[in-house]
Design a protein that fits this description.
By secondary structure, this protein is mainly beta. The chain has one domain. 14% of the residues lie in helices and 38% in strands. Strands 1, 2, 3, 4, 5, 6, 7 and 8 form an 8-stranded mixed beta sheet that branches. The longest helix has 12 residues. It is globular, with a radius of gyration of 18 Å.
């Protein structure tokens, strides 16, 4: 049986933003994201970040999953960290060869960058082809990466409890064929972003 999905916001009836392979579609009017890879589609609040305007360069929002989570780290059966609250950012788009270009969401999470909410601008949104199911494990992966850098020999277990899940739209700008984020100015060639 084919599934018919109406790409209109159920609240305001405006057309949702997204592309053929998108798993998340956006209503900029209602500030909502809809993950259509879930049945029924799940609804998430959208947060827009203030853009540093780069005159003469096209601007676009890149979507990130934001997990506000409590976590505990247990080593050799003994709790050593937590519970602690933290914000994790996971790109809802794929990056080819993430080892080469880096995972900007991991960097935001690792350095506890606080992303301030702002007002929405009239920018398009980069396609979100990573749904919640594809992203929810990344905060745990990020914590394991952090712990592995400490080179401890103990057996590590990480318990994580997601208290709030939303989508943040971070302004990027384009110069030639490269995208730059407006927070830390990392550069991604357009061919690296799927």
């Amino acid at each position: 049986m084919n599934l018919l999905i109406l790409l209109k916001c159920p609240r305001c009836r405006k057309t949702l933003q997204g592309e053929n392979n998108s798993k998340v579609f956006f209503c900029m009017t209602c500030r909502l994201g809809f993950d259509i890879s879930e049945q029924p589609p799940q609804k998430f609040e959208l947060f827009f970040l203030d853009a540093r305007i780069h005159k003469g360069h096209p601007q676009i929002y890149f979507p990130f999953w934001k997990f506000s989570s409590d976590y505990k780290i247990i080593m050799d059966g003994r709790q050593v960290i937590g519970p602690r609250m933290r914000h994790f950012y996971v790109p809802s788009f794929f990056i080819k060869n993430i080892n080469y270009f880096g995972d900007i969401g991991y960097y935001f999470s690792l350095n506890n960058i606080l992303l301030e909410a702002g007002t929405s601008m009239d920018f398009p949104v980069f396609p979100a082809d990573r749904g919640l199911k594809d992203s929810i494990g990344y905060p745990r992966i990020y914590l394991y990466k952090e712990e592995s850098k400490k080179k401890r020999k103990a057996a590590i277990e990480i318990n994580i409890d997601h208290k709030d899940i939303s989508i943040v739209l971070i302004p990027f700008y384009k110069i030639n064929s490269d995208y730059y984020d407006s927070i830390i100015f990392w550069k991604y060639p357009s061919g690296a972003l799927v």
